[in-house]
Design brief:
Helix content is 20%, strand content 33%. With 169 residues, the protein is of the alpha+beta class. The termini are far apart. The structure holds FE2/S2 (inorganic) cluster. FE2/S2 (inorganic) cluster binds next to loops. FE2/S2 (inorganic) cluster (FES) binds next to loops.
Length: 169
């Protein structure tokens, strides 16, 4: 084989160089986009740490709203995020903690704030209704039950974790 065959022409050299630089730049742009796209999937499995919200002795069979804060770490930024829950005791003494976030478009639901529905959660944005157990009332805008907080009761204190779709908490 002659030495001539190993030579790289100016045209080939430019092709290799531009392809390499172009590929490097494309990877630099695509990586953050891919990471941004799959980040929620990666985070979906992470559970919120349990936070002390109230004393069990404060609970009745009537839903009460409790406000609390959670620590949120977003990359390098750490902040306290406000949260709320409607908490009550069921007839058999179980603690039930429901998210106040309406499953229609995310407004905040209130307990018994609609005179025509005194024993239901009511969303004032589009007249959404939920039963006391969080189930959405058919023929109102929400299409799913209110999310349910994971919870634990320890030494008479109620701790809440992540709010999850009913049946997954
Ligand atoms: S946001 Fe609650 S009914 Fe629409």
């Amino acid at each position: 084989m002659s030495e001539k065959n190993h030579r790289v022409s100016r045209r080939q050299f430019l092709n290799y160089t531009l392809t390499g630089v172009g590929g490097f730049m494309a990877a630099g742009m695509l990586m953050p986009m891919v990471r941004f796209a799959i980040d929620p999937v990666l985070k979906a499995g992470t559970d919120q740490e349990m936070v002390l919200v109230c004393d069990e002795s404060e609970l009745t069979t009537e839903p009460q709203r409790f406000d609390f804060k959670i620590d949120q770490i977003d990359a390098w930024y750490e902040s306290e995020e406000p949260r709320a829950a409607w908490i009550f005791k069921s007839e058999n003494g179980d603690v039930i903690a429901l998210s106040p976030v309406c499953k229609h478009l995310g407004c905040t639901v209130n307990w018994a704030s609609d005179e025509a529905n005194p024993n239901r959660f009511f969303c004032p944005c589009h007249y959404g209704l939920y039963e006391k157990n969080g189930d959405n009332v058919p023929n109102t805008p929400p299409l799913a039950p209110l999310d349910v907080y994971q919870h634990k009761v320890e030494d008479g204190k109620v701790y809440l974790g992540s709010a999850k779709p009913k049946g997954e908490a």
